[in-house]
Amino acid sequence: MTTALPLPLLSVRGLSKSFVHRNWCGRVIRHIPAVADVGFDVARGRTLGLVGESGCGKSTTGRLVLRLIEADAGDVRFDGVDIRAAAPARMRTLRRDMQLIFQDPYSSLNPRLTIGGLIEEGLIVHGVRNRGEREDRVAAVLRRVGIRPEYMGRYPNEFSGGQRQRIGIARALVLRPRLIVADEPVSALDVSVQAQVLNLLAEIQEEFGLTAVFIAHDMAVVEHVSEEIAVMYRGRIVERGRTEEVIADPLHPYTRALLDSVPSLRPRAPRRARPARDDTDGERGGGGCPFRARCDLRMPICRMVPPNTEVRPGRVVACHLHQGQAG
Q1: Are residues 223 and 254 in the same domain?
Q2: What is residue 127's predicted lDDT score, i.e. its pLDDT?
Q3: Could you tell me if residue 267 is inside a domain?
Q4: Same domain assignment for residues 249 and 119
Q5: Which of 25, 60, 54, 6 is nearest to 211 (CA)?
Q6: Same structural domain for residues 40 and 154?
Q7: Residue at 204 is within a domain
Q8: Is residue 3 part of a domain?
Q9: Whole-angstrom Cα distance, residue 301 to residue 288?
Q10: Does residue 123 belong to any structural domain of this protein?
Q11: pLDDT digits over 147-171, tens only?
């Protein structure tokens, strides 16, 4: 008798979203696809790194997962619950378990509220009526992220960028969620501060058993924090797999280009690939593989959209070079 595998905490299938571009009088000119047929699973207590260059749809995917914006199509399930079909009352309850860490530690904090008020706000919204309990929880979470509780009466402008991001993390943690979507939480910070915040996130995830979707454009950062990687390009996931496998043996030409763009401390070290060309042709190119205008390995068949091919268990790539290699 076989034992059924546990369900992932987060399961996404066929997620798609387009935005409407209107002219000055409000007439629809075109629909701009932001996310197209995205799918992945995140196991409990694990981290999926969602990586790609700016504008590829990473942040939109994170907001679709949390239903901060509505998807056009697809299925999002959190602990087996269909997020897209959830009624408002049910969705309000689910939001306690799903929290977002914003990218910008400056604009994401209301300058009119003290940091204590910022963090306490979520507790008030979700029905924690006892003021003493709220203050205790705010003090505890501030202490956990490295901010002294006696500072809870201060305003965001009195803190550095790294401290503000710690406050943002505390705001997400105070509701004791099970899923965190971290939207490029260190991209606006200095390199030395990035390391501190990444280490803090790793400690907190292990301590609280959190599941995370970590969004970034820096492959080196994603390698540090994630067990699995999903590489996005122009709204589609082009490669997905365990972090060590994707880093050691990238299958998609775009993944190789991303890895090759990571700065090396050895200036004479051999480069694994030529830099990808610009996307000028890709913007005009119409259908087919979204990367074909930049790819040195393109073939005539690349005028067709490549299917997702599972070359071995857990390793998926959308590239015609790997068709017929399903394991």
Answers
A1: no
A2: 87
A3: no
A4: no
A5: 6
A6: yes
A7: yes
A8: no
A9: 8
A10: yes
A11: 999 999 999 999 998 999 999 999 9
Q: How far is CA 258 from the centre of its chain?
A: 17
Q: Cα(83)–Cα(66) distance, rounded to whole angstroms?
A: 8
Cβ(186)–Cβ(221) below 8 Å: yes
Answer yes or no: do 151 and 18 share one domain: yes
pLDDT tens for residues 225-267? 999 999 999 999 999 999 999 999 999 999 999 888 877 656 5
Cα 226 to its chain centre, rounded Å, is 11
Identity of the residue numbered 136 = D
Contact 277, 294 (CB under 8 A): yes
What single DSSP character describes residue 274? P
- Is residue 279's pLDDT more than 80? no
Counted residue by residue, the chain has a size of 327
> Which amino acid would we find at residue 89?
A
Distance between CA atoms of 191 and 174, rounded to whole angstroms? 27
Q: Tell me: do 55 and 200 sit in the same domain.
A: yes
Residue listed under structure tokens 């074909």? 292
Q: How remote is the C-alpha of 262 from its chain's centroid?
A: 19
Domain, as residue range, for 29 = 10-234
Tokens of 113: 């509220």
pLDDT at 281: 44
67 shares a domain with 160? yes
Q: Exposed, middle or buried, 250 (CB in 10 Å: 0-12/13-18/19+)?
A: buried
Q: 187 and 97 in one domain? A: yes
Q: At a CB cut-off of 8 Å and minimum separation 6, what does 75 contact? A: 11, 12, 13, 14, 15, 82, 84
* CA dist list (Å): 227 to 30, 86, 184, 186: 38, 29, 17, 18
Q: Are residues 134 and 18 both part of a single domain?
A: yes
Q: For residue 231, what are the contacts with CB-CB under 8 A and spacing of at least 6?
A: 51, 52, 237, 238, 239, 240, 246, 252, 254, 255, 258
